[in-house]
Amino acid sequence: MNRAGDAGRIPLPHGVNANDKAGGKMRALWRRTILALLAGVMAMLSGMAAQAGDIAPKVPIDKSKGSCVLPGDQMRREHMKILMHRRDNTLYKGIRGGKASFSACLTCHMVKDAQGKPVTIKSPKHFCRVCHDFAAVRPDCWSCHKSVPEAGDAGNQAMLKGFGSGQVKGRMFAQLRDFVQEGRK
Amino acid sequence: MTDPHNSHEHEEARRNNGAEELDAARRAFLRNSAAAGVVALGGGLTLYTISGEALAKKAEEPLDPKKRWGMLIDTSKCTSGCDKCVEACKKENGWEAKPGSRTDVQWIRKVDVKDPKTGFLASLPVMCQHCANPPCVDVCPTGASMQRADGIVRVNMHICIGCRYCMMACPYKARSFVHEDIPEERKRFHAPMGKGCVTSCDFCAHRVDVGQIPACAEACPEGAMLFGDMNDPESALSKRLREIRSYQIRADLGTDNGIRYTRLP
Known about the structure:
Number of domains of chain B: 2
Radius of gyration of chain A: 29 Å
Radius of gyration of chain B: 19 Å
CATH topology of the largest domain in chain B: Alpha-Beta Plaits
Oligomer: heterodimer
Strand content of chain B: 5-15%
């Protein structure tokens, strides 16, 4: 079966003679079946690839309010580490504001409902839930933390006052101020 | 023992956002060294004070371990029945105590005290006293009850298991346990509070960190609460403490409180 002339041809089932007429028909049929199967598998694979792109949840972001902290795929893997590190920095060292702050996350990723109000974690549209619902992970951040950047919030007011009096300066804070003021509109 | 905090430092250095924070730390270090130089040269002149409030920290900078935040409460100005500081704290930090409740969250309360022999009366706002030797930090089994390098005593609720040892240890009843979920409208961005954790006054750390004074001090109509850096001899607070006699509640316990009162019965 592995003669030089047959190189690249599909091996025939045992007992089929490639030289007789009936065998030739059988061989054509066999070849067609396998090709059809291969085509089917290829179609299925490409279909799956296309589908993966469609079902992976897309995190809503308003890029006009600031640049991304990290590229999306990296963020998907590492956002919890960034948050954890940041939380320790804030608690122990008093470092606040900036790109990695909770406030900045929530401001850029804020989703508004039909009434134009930012949705809380109770809504499946909330940017955290978009992915976490998909991955069946329920983080308990929001049992204590506020899930929307509230413009009238005392903390934001405090931050704003800081900006206004020139006590808080720098590029990072100009950005954050813009986030907060955007949220107020 | 490896410090999870430091191990994260290296990870962060590789990231853009982290680099900014590290830069901020570096800047603060340089700034502080410069300030120390001025102290040495100028004899007592420091760069800590801004408009007499001893506040110079920018939000993105790490806190200054040379500071110790404290407060002097002028009880001669504090009237019984006025609870503006309490209301301001509630609004700022999103807690609520129903009248007469012994289990609701409270960060600050007004206490009227009377010397039974002389009849001398005083009305005191009592909150976390931000002790230099805090018993609540001593007893905490998880390290959640903590003291920041600038003297602020607070709870790290991420590692608090709600055992309430700190509540037992605190001589000032400053801490409370959160028994119920905080409704969404009462949640504050900067003061997260959750069912099953202990919580207490944190000297409005979120305000102090951006160069402001605590909400209670800001709200007092009599200006009876003077907030400042106890370690800076030139701060308004230190000057006032030098001028007049001040008292700590239960000074005999040796906790070295950050909150001082001008008159106690």
